[in-house]
TrEMBL record:
InterPro entries: Carb-bd-like_fold, Gal_mutarotase_sf_dom, Galactose-bd-like_sf, GH-type_carb-bd, Polysacch_Lyase_4, RG-lyase_II, RG-lyase_III. Gene3D superfamilies: 2.70.98.10, Carboxypeptidase-like, regulatory domain, Galactose-binding domain-like. Its EC number is 4.2.2.23. This is rhamnogalacturonan endolyase. One of its GO terms (molecular function) is carbohydrate binding. Its main location: secreted.
Length: 655
C-alpha cells in the first residue's frame, strides 16, 4: 500500500456519499467562522478555538461536545488549548480541480512568549470532511529553548449519545465502554466488568484502557467512531473518522504507534507514548503537521461499522493534489507537489524476507529518532514481491533509506539518498542479510514484535470479539499462574506460543496489578534456554554470537528518555553454561512503556553478545537470560513499577 502520496487518480465516487454540487458557504463575525456545503456544516468558536457545532445532513455530530480542536503539552503549566484570545482568518477559493473551498485558521501566541500554535480546517465542495493542519512554532531569541513539544494532537470530542462504537482498525472495534463508577486499575485503565450485561463487557473485555485502541502508523488508514443509528434523528448510521492520508509530518517512522480512539477521535501529531521521541522547541522551530482528513459519513439504517469504515478508508486514494497545491498559499510550510519528487527502488531482498518495507527518513539517524530534527520528513512504502518499490510526493531533500522485513535479522540502511523536486530518484539496492556464521537456533520471527509469543497476537477467547491478547490489560496474563516454574525453553521441543511469554518481567504483581496485588518474585526474572549442540556444529568454531532483538523495553525511564531513579539504564545479563557474558546496559533513551500500554511493539532496540565458542559444549547447553531481581522503581502514576522487556527474536550463530 502506498498511502503517502497524493494520488494522481480520478477522484472515486464513494458509494455512500454522492458528490454534492452546491457551492461552499462561509461567514465570519466576532464570535465565529461558519463554513458549510450542502451536506456538512461547521462553526469555529472564537472563544475556544474549537469547532463547536458540526452537522452532517442536519444531524448534530457533537452534542454539546467540540472538535476537531488542537491542544498541546508544551507550556510550563502542562497542557494548553489555544483559541481564547487567538487571531482568526477565513480563506475562500477555488482549487486546481475547479472545486470551491473555504478554510478557517486560528493562531495563538502563548502569553506572547513566541510560542505559537495554529489550527487549520478546510472544507471542499462535494466532500463531507475537514482537511486539517496544525502548526507549532517558536520564535524567542531571549529564551533559546521553549522546552519539549511533549504532546500535540487534534481531538474530535463529542458528548452525543449518537456514537455507539469505537474502531481503531479493521480487526479492532467494539461498543463504547462505560467507565462511570468503574474502579481504576491503572492510569487511564478501568475494571468495567461489574456491569455484566454491558455490550462492551460481553463482547470485548472486563477491562478498558484507552491504549487497547492504539495502532502502529505503518498501515494505519482510518480510525474513529460509529453510531449504529439507535440514537440518530432518522435511524441512519453515522461514522466519524480520522483518515491518515499523509504521514510525512509525523515522527518516528512506520513503527510509531499511538492512541487513536477512546471516545475521542484523535489525530496524535506528537507524543511520547510507547517511547516515541518528541521534538524540542528551540528558537526558530517551525513545523506544520498534516494534512489529515476528519471524515464524516452516513449510511441507511442497518449500515454496519465495517461498511462505514471501509468507505472512510477509500477516501485515502482520493486525488487531493490540486486542492493541496491550491491551499499551500494559506498553510505555512505546506509543500506543493512542485517541491516534491519520487523514489523508485528495485530491491533484491534476502531469501525468506516477507512484508518488506522501504523507509525514507532523517539521514544519519535511526528513523525512530527523527524527532531530533524538527525539519525531518518521513515516507515509506511496502516493497512488492518483485522487489519494486515507489514512494511518491517526497519532499525534496536528503534521506536515509532503511529497509526491513519480517523474517530477517537486522536491516539495510543507506544515508545520503537525494530526492530532487520534480524528478525520480532511481535506486538499485541489494540487501544481504547480516550473518555471524552458521545459525544454531532462533526463537521467534524478527518482525519488531513479540506477537508470536504467548499472549501476543493470539486472539482472546474470553469474549465474543476476540481481541489480540497483547491489547488486553496486561495483569490478566498472570505470569506466576502461567509459568509456576518460570520460563524453561528447550529449543526443538518447546512451543513458543505456549512456553515463551510475551513479556520478560523482573517482578510480577504489586502496584497497578488489580488481580495480583502483592509483588511476586520467584522464577520471574531469570529465563532459561536449553539447547543441544552436535560435535559437527561446533567443530573448528571460535566465535559465537547471540543476537537479541527487542520489540520494547521498559527501564525506570518509562516513556521518557531519562529518570532519576534506580534502573534508569537497565543491565541485562546472559550466562552461557555458567559463564557470564559482558553485561548489556540498555540505555534509558530506548525505554518505552509498552506491554502495560497494550502494545506488542514499541521503540525497538537490540544487542549482539559475542563470545568464545568454546563456552558451548557437545550435548546439552544452558543459557540464562536475566533481568536484575526485584528491579522496581517508584511510579507517580498508577503504573507497574517493575522493569521488563519484550523480545522480538533471538538467535545463536557460530563461526
Ligand atoms: C454561525 O452559525 C450559527 C448557528 O450554527 C449562527 O448562530 C451564527 O449566527 C452564525 N454566524 C455567522 C457569522 O454566520
Ligand atoms: C521572530 O521574532 C522577531 C523579533 O520579534 C521578528 O523580527 C521576526 O520576524 C520573527 N520571526 C518569525 C519567523 O516570526
Ligand atoms: C538469576 O541468574 C543469575 C545469573 O545466573 C544469578 O546470579 C541469580 O542468582 C539468579 N537470580 C535468581 C533470583 O534466581
Ligand atoms: C572472531 O572474532 C575476532 C574478534 O572480533 C575476529 O578478529 C575474528 O575474525 C573472528 N573469527 C571468525 C572466524 O569470525
Amino acid at each position: 500500500m502506498k498511502l503517502f502520496k497524493f494520488r494522481f487518480a480520478i477522484a472515486t465516487l464513494l458509494p455512500l456519499v454522492p458528490a454534492a454540487l452546491a457551492a461552499i458557504k462561509s461567514s465570519e463575525d466576532s464570535s465565529a467562522i461558519n463554513i458549510s456545503n450542502d451536506r456538512l456544516s461547521f462553526s469555529v468558536a472564537k472563544s475556544s478555538g474549537s469547532v463547536s457545532k458540526l452537522s452532517l445532513d442536519g444531524q448534530n455530530l457533537l452534542g454539546t461536545g467540540r472538535g476537531p480542536y488542537l491542544d498541546c503539552h508544551c507550556v510550563d503549566s502542562g497542557f494548553w488549548t489555544p483559541g481564547n484570545g487567538a487571531t482568526y482568518k477565513l480563506f475562500k477559493g477555488t482549487d486546481g480541480a475547479g472545486q470551491e473551498y473555504a478554510g478557517a485558521m486560528m493562531s495563538h501566541d502563548y502569553q506572547n512568549t513566541g510560542k505559537v500554535l495554529e489550527q487549520y480546517w478546510f472544507l471542499r465542495n462535494g466532500e463531507t470532511g475537514m482537511h486539517v493542519f496544525a502548526r507549532a512554532s517558536y520564535n524567542n531569541s531571549r529564551v533559546p529553548s521553549g522546552g519539549d513539544l511533549g504532546e500535540m494532537r487534534q481531538l474530535f470530542r463529542p458528548t452525543s449519545t449518537l456514537w455507539t462504537h469505537l474502531s481503531s482498525s479493521d480487526e479492532m472495534y467494539g461498543p463504547i465502554p462505560d467507565t462511570s463508577g468503574a474502579p481504576t486499575v491503572q492510569d487511564a485503565s478501568w475494571y468495567v466488568g461489574g456491569k455484566k450485561d454491558h455490550p462492551y463487557v460481553k463482547q470485548v473485555s472486563d477491562y478498558f484502557t484507552k491504549y487497547m485502541f492504539s495502532e502502529e502508523w505503518r498501515n494505519q488508514i482510518a480510525h474513529g467512531m460509529y453510531g449504529d443509528g439507535s440514537k440518530s434523528n432518522d435511524g441512519s448510521a453515522f461514522g466519524a473518522w480520522l483518515v491518515m492520508n499523509t504521514k510525512d509530518t509525523y515522527f518516528g517512522g512506520p513503527t510509531h504507534s499511538d492512541l487513536t480512539v477512546d471516545g475521542i477521535v484523535y489525530n496524535y501529531l506528537v507524543s511520547n507514548h510507547h517511547g516515541n521521541g518528541v521534538p524540542e522547541m528551540t528558537n526558530g522551530f517551525d513545523r506544520t503537521f498534516g494534512p489529515q482528513y476528519y471524515y464524516f459519513n452516513k449510511g441507511a439504517k442497518g449500515t454496519t461499522l465495517q461498511q462505514l469504515r471501509s468507505d472512510a478508508a477509500k477516501t485515502v486514494t482520493t486525488n487531493w493534489t490540486p486542492f493541496y497545491d491550491s491551499i499551500a498559499q494559506h498553510v505555512p510550510n505546506l509543500l506543493p507537489s512542485s517541491r516534491r519528487g519520487i523514489f523508485q527502488g528495485t530491491v533484491s531482498l534476502p531469501k525468506g524476507a516477507t512484508r518488506a518495507v522501504a523507509v525514507l527518513a532523517l539521514s544519519g539517524a535511526d528513523f525512530q529518532d527523527n524527532n531530533k530534527d524538527s525539519r525531518a520528513y518521513q515516507y515509506w512504502s511496502e516493497i512488492e514481491s518483485t522487489g519494486s518499490v515507489t514512494i511518491r510526493s517526497v519532499k525534496a531533500g536528503t534521506y536515509r533509506l532503511t529497509i526491513y522485513a519480517d523474517g530477517i535479522f537486522g536491516e539495510y540502511t543507506q544515508d545520503g539518498v537525494d530526492i530532487k523536486a520534480g524528478q525520480t530518484h532511481a535506486a538499485t539496492v541489494t540487501w544481504a542479510s547480516e550473518t555471524a556464521g552458521t545459525e544454531l537456533w532462533r526463537i521467534g520471527t524478527p518482525d519488531k514484535s513479540c506477537g508470536e509469543f504467548r499472549h501476543g497476537n493470539a486472539k482472546s477467547t474470553s469474549k465474543t470479539l476476540g481481541m489480540r491478547e497483547y491489547r488486553e490489560y496486561w495483569a490478566v496474563h498472570d505470569f506466576p499462574n502461567d509459568f509456576p516454574n518460570g520460563i524453561k525453553y528447550k529449543i526443538g521441543t518447546s512451543d513458543l506460543t505456549k512456553d515463551f511469554n510475551y513479556v520478560h518481567w523482573s517482578v510480577f504483581g504489586g502496584k497497578a496489578n488489580y488481580i495480583r496485588k502483592d509483588p511476586y518474585y520467584t522464577n520471574v526474572n531469570n529465563w532459561t534456554i536449553a539447547f543441544d549442540v552436535t560435535p559437527q556444529q561446533i567443530a573448528g568454531k571460535t566465535n559465537a554470537t547471540l543476537t537479541i532483538q527487542l520489540a520494547g523495553v521498559k527501564t525506570s525511564a518509562g516513556n521518557n528518555d531519562h529518570a532519576d531513579k534506580a534502573w534508569n539504564d537497565l543491565p541485562y545479563t546472559v550466562v552461557v553454561n555458567g559463564k557470564q557474558l559482558p553485561t548489556w546496559t540498555i540505555p534509558s533513551q530506548h525505554s518505552s512503556s509498552c506491554a502495560v500500554r497494550s502494545a506488542a511493539t514499541c521503540y525497538t532496540t537490540g544487542h549482539k553478545f559475542e563470545f568464545n565458542a568454546g563456552f558451548l559444549r557437545e550435548g546439552g547447553n544452558e543459557m540464562i537470560l536475566s533481568l536484575p531481581a526485584k528491579a522496581t522503581a517508584p511510579e507517580d502514576a498508577v503504573l507497574p513499577e517493575s522493569v521488563y522487556l519484550q523480545y522480538d527474536a533471538l538467535r545463536l550463530e557460530v563461526a
